[in-house]
Amino acid sequence: MEIKTSQGIHKSKGGLIRSFVATENGRIKEINISGDFFLFPEEAFFKIAGELKGIKAKREDIEHKIEEIYIRENIQSPGTSPADFTESIMKALEV
Length: 95
Known about the structure:
GO terms for molecular function: ATP binding; lipoate-protein ligase activity. The protein is of the alpha+beta class. It has a single domain, classed as 2-Layer Sandwich (Enolase-like, domain 1), CATH 3.30.390. The chain has three helices and three strands; from the N terminus they run βββααα. It has helices spanning about 45-50, 60-75, 80-95; strands spanning about 5-10, 15-25, 25-35. A three-stranded antiparallel sheet has the order 1-2-3, covered by helices on one side. β1 and β2 form a beta hairpin. α1 runs antiparallel to α2 (about 60-75) and α2 (about 60-75) packs antiparallel against α3.
């Protein structure tokens, strides 16, 4: 049971996205996302991080979950998309 933690950084049109991701057995165990992007409503930020915990650490699964949360929570993020968040997370997972 190996836990791996790494960081990924991605620059979107809306700002820098920094992801710290810990994985265990191919799933996201912990995730922290920060940066200088805007996300409305602000509390949706916690929903994204919270709902990514436990899912498979695979691009398709991550992007699908973020897109689902964007729609359900009516998230607005000028210059930043679910694909941008996914890219930051994938960069952390590739380290």
